[in-house]
## 1
Amino acid sequence: MIRLSEIRFDEHAERAVVEVLRSGQLAQGPTVERFEEALRARLDVAHVAAVSSGTAALVLALEAAGVGPGHEVVTSPFTFAATVNAILHVGATVRFADIDPEDFTVNVEAVDAAINERTAAVLPVDLYGQPADIPALAALAARRGIRLIEDAAQAFGAEAHGTPAGTADVGCFSFYATKPLTTGEGGAVATADGDLDGRVRLLRSQGSRVRYRYEAIGHNMRMTELAAAVGRCELDRFDELTGRRQVNAALLTAGLESVPGIQTPLIRAGRTHVFHQYTVRVTEDSRLSRDALREQLAAEGIETGVHYPRAATEEACYGEHSRVICERMPHAETAARQVLSLPVHPWLTDGDIERIVAAISALEPA
Ligand SMILES: *Cc1c(COP(=O)(O)O)cnc(C)c1O
């Protein structure tokens, strides 16, 4: 079986976890601080606060930016549920802007058209590991006087025109088990804004800076020492593992780009792609539907994924929500019917990649 995702840790991570256990301190402490310092250096940004998950990062970033009831946040309808949930959890209203069909990230003109006097932030999603058009969105947000809160959960280490994903204004990362940089569960908020970073730190720990004194209504969204120990080790080999994802992606594209009905991922000029997912489109020209192809590949021992099977606007819990402005999102809805994620993880062998390419090519008449 070729798995869609495979996670292997090395002996450094094993040792680091044992060290934390022996220290007796498991809750947020010096290891979290060292992980934050390493992330700051890696991202070349003034502040990074480690938190308990990517979802927590989004909630804290929105709250710390003062986004709440009465505000609208413009985001992508083609994303993981956490993006939309975070906006709703802080009490704000979700307004969608459709995606660019070529790279699956939010379309800048659509964002511009969706902004009004209630808009407090634009929240683009760096889908599959390629940043949205962050320079254009940052310029737009600055012009309209709103915040740019980047869902870079899938794009740690990617860049747009030399700027690391998540560092334009406020960036949210996830270190969930299958993400390219993992701590099991975890996340981080990156920003150059020291005041915002201070509020994230306050809110992640019950609104308390001094023990048992409270300045705000906060959460428990802290990262554990165990998670941070894993993260520090994973960060050390992140470039090597990401390089392997990128090589695997290039091999898949070379093998699949001439297969009729398969549209391989586009890497935009000026952007880098860390390939959290390698996602093709199965178009109308394909002999098999996306779902039939998926079943055939499963029968041949190749696991695939659909990220995501519906646009957010198509889910009743969002579509019928009083704080979701629900309009048709044709590009997102079409993408949801066509996308298929193939294995691209660092532990694939060349033989695995040949098997994936051969299986898909054989199913399509040349
Ligand atoms: C993974 C992910 C999140 C949430 O991260 P968790 O760590 O699972 O809470 C948010 N947005 C996107 C786009 C993601 O892929």
Note: The chain has a mean pLDDT of 97.
## 2
Amino acid sequence: MFFCYIFVVVSLINFLPDFHVSSCDHNCADKPRFTPSRLVVQFGKPTSALCSVCQPGCNVTLFNIECPIGTLAANGTEITWTVNKMTEWIISPSCYYNNDTTDTHCCSVLPITVYKPPENVSFSVHPDEPMSEGQQYTLQCEVRDVAPVKNLTVTFYRGRIALGEPKSSKREKDEPKPVSEVFTLNITSTKEDDGVQFWCEAKLELGAEGPQPPPVVESEKLTAAVHYKPHLEVSIPPDTIIIREENPLTLNCSSVGNPPPSYTWTPPSRITSPSNGSVFFINSITHEDEGLYTCYVSNEKGSISVQFDVTVQANNLILIIGLVVAVVLLAVIVGVAVFISYHRYYKEGAYNLWDRIRLHTTHSSIPTAE
Ligand SMILES: *[C@@H]1O[C@H](CO)[C@@H](O)[C@H](O)[C@H]1NC(C)=O
Ligand SMILES: *[C@@H]1O[C@H](CO)[C@@H](O)[C@H](O)[C@H]1NC(C)=O
């Protein structure tokens, strides 16, 4: 306990002779009462409390509040203690009166928590960025000049998700004066962390008497850069790709990676021109383009290679057109043949008929002539 030995002299308050702290009785029946019963005050800010020295109608002659700072004003057996600017970290005003029968002081102490939100909260990652996928990193949050440290909570964030609340190593010390402290949290980076914001937050939780909501100081946000090897963004057909002749061919091996990966395609034949994009494209495929296509994707973190097996089928349309042409051609040939033979038959037939008619006439006249 820290009691004040400097008396604040207020004319209304009866002056007490100096006494030793041990003569202060904290268990007396009619104890002085503070309103509020507990104070939470920010360093440098004003505050005040009222002490009702004893029950209304009581008869005490000597009473006071002891404290190094502030002013007192009495009204009957009530004393108001006012501080324009809190300049102490450790302060416990004591309100008392003299108990004539036992010749002791009946005392009450006002518990005061003096706080100070952090001067500065800074966030960093160790070792330095860019991170590499799958590696362990230490997130660090440095909180400067905060009091009291036992009420401090530091939370690490990944985007909007809280990652953890490491405990202060100074928590047990119960230090009322401002301290600076470094909090750390270990993480293993993933490729999903790339482009995500990391940061920390320091909060002073001072209880129901404290400021609502509790004071919070956030660090600056750090956008993580994570380097990782290429990963395919597309699903690769497991089987052979069968494609008709003259149709377009599109092979896609789009991948994500940081730094952005580069692509190298190896087509099966020299006739097919190579490509260095994520998509391989042939406008009209021919039998020469059949075979194994390899897509090689790489960046400084690693590489992958993907194979596409392409089979080219003869075009059915050509077959059908060929067939139709053949059928038409056949029909024309047959038609022409039929026409020619019929024409010949008709001419032949007419001649024969004429012949027959003539023959018949001759035959009929012959008997008449005979
Ligand atoms: C966090 O990582 C650092 C450096 O790798 C290591 O020294 C420290 O012990 C780790 N802390 C915890 C809590 O795992
Ligand atoms: C290739 O795949 C990527 C990822 O799925 C997609 O964004 C892109 O449009 C595709 N390209 C083509 C030409 O299909």
Note: Residues 136, 138, 186 surround 2-acetamido-2-deoxy-beta-D-glucopyranose (ligand 1) (CB under 6 Å).
## 3
Amino acid sequence: MLDASPQTAARITENWLRVRDEVATAARMADRAIQDIRIVGVSKYVDVELTAQLVDAGCHALGESRPQNLWGKAEVLRQSNREIEWHLIGHLQRNKIRRTLSQITWLHSLDSLRLAEALNAELKTAHESNAPSAALNGPQITPKRLNVLVEVNVTQDTTKTGMMVDALYQAIDQMLDLPHLSLRGLMAMSSRDTGGVETRREFAAVRQLRDDLQVRCGPRAVLDQLSMGMSGDYREAISEGATMVRIGSSLWQGILP
Ligand SMILES: *Cc1c(COP(=O)(O)O)cnc(C)c1O
């Protein structure tokens, strides 16, 4: 990884503009509005200085997969007054909930009913007591309701993360009863990283699952978000209805070894 410099800033800006253009092209080809697709820049590969350069290039939604890394960057960058919306895209351990909740706007990786219940309980406490958050440079405002996506394992591959479809069906009613969670849709990863026909079929299955769940939920939830697609397969994801693409490597070309 290079150290941040004017050269890295120029390269990151070039990468950002290219990715944004490619996402716009994919949206156009799928007959979709570009405003309906949010690019979450995945900053897990780089340090906070390079992450700041991505924000300055124009990417204001950032994703991290490890809570500790998200905290560290969020706390530093908050002091610089950059406008950033943080997304946690990896597994959240229950002992990290409190500190994470004060930083994030979206959780893409809700993967069990137990985690949902623990999140709801923490949000309830935070809201009732108006307690200052555990963030180091707080006070940060913990939201009353957190936007969550259920991470699903649609290929039923036991080596992959995410909830199995039948487990999700068993848990969904209880999840919908949690007043501090706003269930907004699904997150999924393809079982391949190359794109192509099979990837597209998998993303189509995620969208179908979302549609079926929406029928099951009725007015209790608006499942309007699909987080799917990474550097290797966001075109397929956009053509199958992704509203959030989580892009890392493509944004760091020329920066990472
Ligand atoms: C790392 C990561 C990404 C980004 O992947 P790239 O292939 O680098 O674009 C997206 N989603 C999740 C969950 C990740 O962990």
Note: Residues 42, 44, 65, 89-90, 230-232, 246-249 surround pyridoxal-5'-phosphate (CB under 6 Å).
